[in-house]
Structure formats: C-alpha cells, structure tokens
Specification:
Number of domains: 1
Bound molecules: D-gluconic acid
Largest sheet: 8 strands, parallel, barrel
Oligomer: single chain
Number of helices: 17
CATH superfamily: Glycosidases
Shape: globular
Order of helices and strands: EHHHEHHEHHEHHHHHEEHHEEEHEHEEEH
Helix content: 40-55%
Strand content: 15-25%
Structural class: alpha/beta
CATH topology: TIM Barrel
C-alpha cells in the first residue's frame, strides 16, 4: 500500500449539527421540530460529540490519523444577533487544543449548513445583510481561535443551494411529465440520490404550501431561506460575497491562516449526446465559482460519486451497479476524476474535505477508501497539489433530513449509551499515513 508523505493531512470530518447534539438555537433544530417537518427524525443528543470530543479525538489519534475537520456552530456562538457567547467560543478552543495535544491538525469550518434561527428571520441566505452578519461572526470567532489555526474553510458546500434548486426543477419537470403520462418511468427517488447530502426533496416540494403558515409562526417569514434551501442566483452571489468578506476578515486578523471554501462536486460523465448538458452542469457546480475562489489558498473538494448525463439530463446509475444506502453508485474512482478536473482551472492547493460512503458493510468502506486514495496518490504523482484527505465521516451521525439511518462513520455509536465502537476502516484509513 502506498503511504502519503508525513506532511499530508489524513483525517476524518464532522459537522457540528450532525454530531454535537442539542443545537437548540439553530434553524435545523427548529425545522426538525415543526409539524410540517421534512426531517425523518430530530437530531436530539446526536452523538454527544459536544461532550465526548476528547474521546473521539483520542480514537482518531490512536488509529493513526493526523488531522480533524470539524465546524464551529454559529447558533451557539451568536445565539442572538450581535450577542456572542464567549463560553461557546472557548469550547471550540478546547477542541482545537485537544487536537494539538493528540498531534492532529485542526481544520475548522465556520459554516456547515446550520444557521442561527435569527438569521432566517432576517431573510437567511437570500438577504443582503447576511454578508455583513457572516463577516461579524467570522471576526468574533476567528479572533478567539485564529492564533491556534492554520486552515479555515469559510462555508461548506457553497454550491449546495444551487444544486438543490436544479434538482427541485428536475423533480418538478418529472412530476409534470408523470402527470401527463399518468405513469412514470423514472422514480423521484433517483433525483434526491444525486444531491450528495441527505435531503428529502420529495417532501420538501410537497410540503411547501402547508409549511408557509408554520414558517411564519416559527421564523417570522413565509419562506425559510436556509442554507440548503433552493437558492436563487442572487442568493448564490450572497453566499460568494459572504465567503469573500470572511476571507478578508481572516486575512486581516491572521494573514498566515490558509483560507478556502468547499464545494460539492460530482464526477459528471457525459454519455453519448449528453456532452452539452454535462458541460452546463459542471459550469453550475464548479466553473462559475472560479471568480469567487480565485484568491483562496485552497479549495475543499467534496465528492461521493459520479453522475451520468445524457441528452435528457441526469441518468440513473447503470443497471446492476452497487448502490450505497444513499442510493449513490459505489464509484470511488470519481474522486480522482474530480481532482484532475478542478486542478485544471484552480491554481491553489486542494484538500479533499469530504469523501465517503454510507454502508452497513464496513469492508466496502475500506474498499472505497483504498480505491479513492489510490486515485489521490496518482494525482500527487502527477504533481497536483493535493495536501490532505478527510473521510466523511468520523462517526455514524445525523444525516440531515434522512436522520440516523445512514451510516457514514468510521466509528459506530450506540446512541442509547453513546458508546463508541471503532470500525476496522478507521485504522485502515490511519495505515495510509506516512
Ligand atoms: C455535505 C455535508 C455532509 C453530509 C455528507 C453525506 O457536505 O453534504 O457536508 O454534511 O452529511 O455529504 O451526505
């Protein structure tokens, strides 16, 4: 097996809302508890990483990992607009120090999908004021943590809202075609399989009307513009400007910190006649972000599978393909393809900030890791600037609207007792460290 050089970051990733538990001031928590919820279940205590981070970091270190990507939770740090909770900021300082104690490089993400509830009341990710609000939160939290950090991801999957909008549009067209034919030939389950995150798009579409009234009660607005809502082009620019504003703040405070954002990137492959569609999809997903990320130090690449694109758009996985719990095709080669593709246009460093598989069969996870990492090796041999690989995810956790049924973790958790059970894939991943 090929090991990486000692300075290559090899680690696991989590997001605060998915693992910490009791993120009560966030929009996700509110949505999980609504009558018109699109969540299969609420996150509740999650896997109590908020209290058990020390054990989780120790397990990573024991398995040989040398890096940990996690996120700070805006809703905890700024529970009311303009009021910061220092104890919460210091909590993350403890997590960072714990990483250092165990020899892990902390890579911090400032925003990973969940937002404070108050931000949504102000118009969320479609509101101009969010640029300023995100910059203010960045100034506060980076002011507290920055002296201990070398890497910051500002925003996770900046392109998620645009992907959700594209899939929702596809879904609507499918439903219209279905109504016309009264018989569908391509079920909607395929559509949400393509988003690279656990959302119930069917439910999101169907519940929109009933939700408006409840949104008004819960958020004070009819339409909650969460980070993972369908984004308009104007909203997309707000996300980019929020990133740029945060980057400027970080550079002002700690110029040595390496800054980037992360993008959800599919290995988009055209089948005959699908070339133009595939190009357009790639432009929406990646190329149109180039002006926003050009001055970044690195790009966080997040990939889970490939998509096949034909003349009519996205196609289902090939007949007989192995599917993961998320209904994605098992296709670890996708990572190498995506890295090569982004490296052709983006000049900074690349960090694989997410790559993984939801499965009950841990031997398939190890097989996935082995193939994905051999692709990373081949990119490095060709001189591409890949500096790290973070597997999604450290723990079986709360897969957003899909709840706890999706098992992405290198560590299983019995949520009744919160006991951790490292899987073999955890030490397998660690064995690649140089
Ligand atoms: C994502 C999210 C993760 C998901 C993961 C698996 O960035 O989409 O970062 O929160 O859990 O992608 O679907």
């Amino acid at each position: 097996m090929d090991q990486f050089s000692p300075d290559f970051l090899i680690g696991a990733a989590t997001a605060a809302h998915q693992v910490e538990g009791n993120n009560t001031g966030s929009d996700c928590w509110a949505m999980e508890h609504m009558e018109h919820t699109t969540y299969n279940e609420p996150s509740l205590d999650a896997v109590d990483h908020y209290h058990r981070y020390r054990e989780d970091i120790r397990l990573m270190a024991e398995a040989g990992l040398n890096a940990y990507r996690f996120s700070t939770e805006w809703a905890r740090i700024e529970p009311e607009e303009g009021r910061f909770d220092e104890a919460e900021a210091l909590h993350y300082l403890d997590v960072i120090r714990c990483c250092r104690e165990y020899g892990l490089e902390p890579v911090v993400t400032l925003h990973h999908f969940s937002s404070p509830k108050w931000l949504i009341t102000k118009g969320g990710w479609e509101a101009e004021s969010t640029v300023e609000d995100f910059a203010r939160y960045t100034r506060y939290i980076v002011g507290k943590l920055g002296s201990e950090l070398r890497y910051i991801c500002t925003i996770n999957e900046a392109n998620m809202g645009i992907q959700v909008a594209a899939i929702a549009k596809r879904y609507t067209l499918q439903m219209m075609a279905k109504a016309a034919r009264t018989q569908a030939d391509n079920g909607p389950g395929r559509s949400d399989g393509a988003v690279q995150a656990g959302f119930n798009l069917e439910k999101m579409m169907a519940g929109a009307k009933g939700a408006a009234e409840e949104n008004l009660r819960v958020f004070g607005v009819e339409k909650a513009e969460n980070f993972t809502s369908m984004r308009t082009l104007k909203g997309d620019q707000i996300v980019c400007r929020a990133h740029e504003a945060a980057r400027a703040v970080i550079r002002e405070l700690y110029p040595a910190i390496r800054v980037g954002l992360t993008l959800s990137l599919h290995d988009i492959q055209a089948v005959e006649g699908g070339e133009a569609n595939a190009e357009k999809e790639w432009a929406d997903e990646f190329t149109h972000y180039l002006p926003c990320i050009r001055e970044d130090d690195f790009l966080g690449v997040q990939n889970y599978t490939r998509t096949l694109t034909g003349p009519e758009g996205t196609l289902p996985a090939p007949e007989g393909a192995e599917l993961t719990q998320m209904d994605y095709e098992f296709y670890p080669q996708a990572l190498e393809h995506v890295i090569r593709r982004v490296a052709a246009d983006f000049e900074g460093d690349l960090l694989v900030t997410e790559n993984g598989i939801a499965t009950n069969d841990d031997s398939r996870r190890s097989a996935f890791i082995s193939q994905a990492l051999s692709g990373v090796h081949s990119c490095i041999r060709d001189g591409l600037p890949v500096r790290g690989y973070f597997h999604w995810s450290l723990l079986d956790n709360f897969e957003w609207q899909k709840g706890y049924s999706m098992t992405f973790g290198l560590i299983a958790v019995d949520r009744a007792t919160q006991t951790r059970y490292p899987k073999e894939s955890l030490s397998f991943l660690g064995s690649f460290r140089g």
